[in-house]
Amino acid sequence: MNNRVRELRGEQSWSQADLAERLDVSRQTVNAIETGKYDPSLPLAFKIAKLFGRPIEGIFEPGD
Which three-class secondary structure state does DSSP give residue 6? Predict the structure, then answer.
């Protein structure tokens, strides 16, 4: 799954650790989501979307 998490995090000038704290996950989880190694659960995807004020489909999209 492709996503814009790294880009959106950068717009906020947040580190991976900052975002992880806001989402109550590990920094490694944020890294894995950003690099496409891990697709978040639906509740976590909703949490990410809410945090950035965007619809889920504005952040995540199916991969190739």
Answer: helix
Task: Find residue 60's DSSP bridge partners.
Answer: 3
Q: Residues 58, 46: contact at Cβ < 8 Å?
A: no
Write out pLDDT tens, residues 28-37: 999 999 999 9
What is d(CA 34, CA 57) in angstroms, rounded to the nearest whole number?
Answer: 15
pLDDT (tens digit per residue) in 43-52: 999 999 999 9
CB-based burial, 35-45: b 16+ in 10 Å, e otherwise: eeeeebeeebb
